[in-house]
Amino acid sequence: MNEFLYKASFIAAVAFLFYKVLLQRESFFSANRFYLIGCLVLAFTLPFVRLPALIRHQGYLATVWPQNGTVKDSSTSIPATQLPAKNPFQETASKPPVTASKLIYQDPESVQKNSTEPVARTRYSLSFWLFTLYLFGVAVFSGRLLLQLGIILFRIRQSVDKVKDDNIVIVNTAQQQAPCSFFHYVFIYADEYDFETYHNIIEHEKIHARLGHSFDLLLAEVAAIFLWINPFIWLLKKEIEKNNEYQTDAFMVEKVRVDKQQYQLNLLQIAVPNRPLSITTNYNQSLLKQRIMMMNAKRSTPHAYWKYSFLVPVFFGALLLLNKPASSQEISEKDTQKNTLSSESADRAQKAIPQIKKDLNSSDESSIWNNPDSKTDMSSGYWYSHQENQDYCLEFKGSQGNSHWNMSRCFPKNSFQKTGDKHFELTKDAGTLQLSGDLQAEVSQGKYTFMENKDFKNYLAANTTLPEEKNFVLFLFFADVNRQYVEFLKSQYQTLDGQRLLEVAIHGISLTEYKGYIALFEQYSQKKPSMSEVIEAKIHGVDQQYVQQIEKMGFQGLSLSKIMEAKIHGIDSDYVQRLKEAGITNLSMDQVIEAKIHGINPNSIKELRAFGFGGLTLAKMIELNIHGITAAYIQELQSAGLKNLTLDQTLEAKIHGLDAGSIKEIRALGFANISFEEIRNARIHGVDADFIKGLKESGLPNLTIEKAIEAKIHAIDGAFIQDAKKKGFNFASIDKYISFKIHNQAIESLKE
């Protein structure tokens, strides 16, 4: 059991560190979710997987971890309570048997004199109490989980205010608490929130329920119960909770199409101290700042998927280190089972691919439609409204519950005509929208029907190519595309593409906006834009205000395509100003974009200048950033005694993996005045503290770092010297051992 816990804890640690180093900053939330849950499974399965002998020292970690009350020999393990009176290997073994970690080895003869009881009692007493403590922790955390489940079931059973919304049950609590969900139950104290905030919360928790995040949390909770002694399992559990919130926030912003800024303000509004149960997915998380930063961060490109390619060598290497090689008989017995497991793993991976692809194909923020469907008839459905000043703000959906499409739009109140009791109409060139329900109420809902204007559709057919889209006229209606708009586009283009007109409508480009985009392109690109270029500008949020902001930064004469590129990479006046304040001036827009792409932080430039590094250029900062040179790393080197390094030397140190720990270890072996060049050369040739220590302990106490490097080059280490001494070759200098290794002749003349 102990060995299993050590191995499972090791896998959890490797999984967490790999995630923190390579994956946590990527916005592949579905892929990261699959990875994190898969790591929990691997932690409990890899300890039982055994492979045939593939490398030397395979299963090394299994030999150094404590075994359950056994004393290990180089060839066998003998229970501590059954040590023989005389060791049968005593005269032939080159060294005494190795005991378990933290246990003191006693010579077999002394065990015979003092009997086995004192040793056995000491060993089993410690092991017994440690295992008892472990079981106590399992019991406590299991009880905690059962208590939380009981509280949830009690709240569901006792609540008298439950509302079923499709496959979701909303439990309106009587007491104030933070909103949360558990599988398809959503708990909320409704009296505390306004309509929009309440709506965002419910949509947020619906996503949690739809994605099955409660399963992730339960699995992480169970894993933490069995590995509670390992801090990495708690950290891994926390990352699962974080990733679930990131994934849900991304769905809210990209799929549900909530206003990002308003949604973030709602998060701040709901940041109350009421803590939900840890096994529930909750709207109010303590990681609020990280969620907002992740929402505002640039989305990862598909090229970043290369990082996942390291999963196989990392976990395969961990497997080789964990378990001893399996015998041929064991391999034969497990062939069938392994094939079955491989098939199941492949199936799970295959099922995860569509979800990963779905996350990558997120649409832009300029569209007023969420998942417009070209096959579904959207001419009738349901509407939900609330009033804002002189507007009715409506949301249209295909069904009352979960709808695979929706659209939100605010209309002036005077644009609707009341045609009967709780019946309203809105008429435009494209058709008529009829609403049934009390539209004039503060908050209301009902059904809608849209009737196309046949004359307008015939007009479109005569003036443009109609796309294969059932809801084409409906989209034009909501985007205020009328005859005047179409006539204007006809005057600008020889032929009017219906598909482009559809995209103009879906992205909500008004006639006034379109004219503004034409003026922008003619002014800054000296050409009339195509409809595709106008749509692209709208998607990326390039407008007159942003162009003026670019000009105020000092970038004159840029084409609109270059301005659009700047917008895509998030270039704003604040970033450019901070670069200037950090001393990076006279940059072209291409250079600013390059700095942004490489993640150049103006604050880090100031920190480096504080160490006396002048003449920092953008190219040098990019080079430093690529290699991970930070103020913290420079401080680390200085704490190890390397205080006057140049930037190039600092880069060399980072490239060769020098850190404070390795430098201090070498200095502690008598090399207090070792120079950077000597440390670097030692690192290049793989000379570390253990290697030097081995040489000194073998009889070379006055060894210099240069001679240690020569020894390493010629593959001479402490073991080689000890072996030479056993054969009668006891030299006083490393040069003679090198000669002995190189020539291996005239041995008698070299003897002292």
Give the arrangement of secondary structure elements.
Layout: H1 2-23, H2 29-45, H3 60-64, E1 70-72, E2 77-79, H4 108-114, H5 117-158, E3 162-165, E4 168-172, E5 180-182, E6 185-188, H6 195-211, H7 213-226, H8 231-254, H9 260-269, E7 281-282, H10 288-296, H11 311-322, H12 328-360, E8 369-370, E9 380-388, E10 391-397, E11 406-412, E12 417-420, E13 423-428, E14 431-436, E15 443-452, H13 454-463, H14 472-478, H15 483-492, H16 498-506, H17 511-524, H18 531-539, H19 544-552, H20 560-568, H21 573-581, H22 589-597, H23 602-609, H24 618-626, H25 631-639, H26 647-655, H27 660-667, H28 676-684, H29 689-697, H30 705-713, H31 718-726, H32 734-743, H33 747-750
Parallel strand pairs: 4-6
Antiparallel strand pairs: 1-2, 3-4, 5-6, 5-7, 8-11, 9-10, 9-15, 10-11, 12-13, 13-14, 14-15
